[in-house]
Amino acid sequence: FHQCSQCRRCSVFCPYGIDTAEISMAAREILDEIGIGQKYCNEILAKVHTIGNNLGLKAPALANTLEGLEEDVKDDTGFDVRFPLDVEGADVLLIPPSADFFAEPHIDGLIGYAKVFHQAGISWTMSSYASEAANFAMFIGNYEQMRKVALRVRKAAIDLKVKRIIVGECGHAWRVAYSFWNTLIGPFDFLDQNYPIPQHICEFTYDLIQRGALKLDKSANADKVVTFHDSCNVSRASRMGKMPGGQFKIPREIIKACVNKFYDMAPETIHENTFCCCGGGGLLTDDLMELRVKGAQPRMQALKQVVDEHGVNHVAAICAICKSQFTKVLPYYKFPMDMIGSVHGLVSKAIVLGAKE
Asked: What are phi and psi of 19, to 5 degrees?
């Protein structure tokens, strides 16, 4: 049961409508109840409960990291782009995946979020108490644990007196937020009801682009020929915005606004038919590297096809686990490790600070 990545692709094609991922989650919950858990996920959950994020980054380390990013962006752009932490009264509470704080290719995404907020003139903050968007309790099938982790976000939002909650680029974090938060930790009557609750960072950025509130220079990404990997927990378990298929349209429209060359993979391998990266469902441990590499083969084959046909050299994704998985498995399939990146990493390069259309 713990070898299932919970991607739910089988449920899309099953003629009987069986959702195997839900079965594996139920089985995992039974196993967890009798003390047969999964070490990788349980160790991560312990860090969240005691410290606030999957990586065990304590508040001083987190603050130091964000200060360093402010200095880096200042040196690079000349603008004072802030990465605020624990600011009471901000309009937005951003809950990113913890990988966005420290590692490539994730950190470019966090820089992109900050630049978008800066350019839009939106006050925002992160929380040292609830600094993690991901909720690994979903991977062990324990809904009470899922609720306890999610409650940290609710408490942070109330304590900081924010009006909106925005979730960063993390696939299963968005699934939990979109599909479970309302029943786990709602109602959200303390937030501004004029905005989506919760809201995905891509929804936020897309809306700004549509309203002409951001100026984007595609030439900043002139070296990139881009494709997009639909993450399972976004494509098959949630949506974005109010338009049909928003979870497919919105990230692609953001990418197209930032680059000159975008090509989708083959139609049978995208949208709700997407192939799993094979890092989800609690599989993102080096102990299962052989399984992860083999499981990624269908996606790697689809990627090779679009590389051969269009010269694609960059893959964008909106899931921290997908990005972490790709950096490990791409070299096994003779692709460069740095081929994977964040959607907001492209935004970060293209955004023109200090000017609006």
From this structure: -100, 95
Count CA atoms closer than 13 A to 78's CA, side-chain side: 3
Which two structure tokens, joined as six digits, stand for 233?
């927990």
- pLDDT tens digits for range 292-331: 999 999 999 999 999 999 999 999 999 999 999 999 999 9
| Count of Cβ atoms closer than 10 Å to residue 66 Cβ | 18
Query: pLDDT per residue over 51-98, tens digit each?
Result: 889 989 899 999 999 999 999 999 999 999 999 999 999 999 999 999
Which DSSP category does 341 fall into?
E
Tokens of 194: 């004029």
User: How far, in whole angstroms, is CA 89 from its chain's centroid?
Assistant: 25
DSSP line for 69-126: HHHHHHHHHSS-----BS-TT-SEEEE--GGGGT-TTTHHHHHHHHHHHHHHT--EEB
Burial 294-332 (b: 16+ CB within 10 A, else e): ebbeebbebbeebbeebebbbbbbbbbbbbbbbbbbbee
Reading the block at residue 19, the tokens are 């959702």
Structure tokens at 27: 């089985």
Whole-number Å distance between alpha carbons of 275 and 268: 9
Beta-carbon count within 10 A of 287 CB: 10
What stretches of the chain adopt beta strand conformation (E)? 92-95, 124-125, 164-167, 199-200, 225-228, 261-262, 314-317, 340-342
Distance CA 197, CA 17 (A): 29
Determine how many CB atoms are found less than 10 A away from the CB of residue 335: 18
- The model's pTM: 0.95
Rounded-to-integer distance, Cα 314 and Cα 222, Å = 12
Contacts of 153 (CB under 8 A, 6+ apart): 93, 95, 130, 165, 181, 185
Nearest-5° Cα angle at 309, 308 to 310: 100
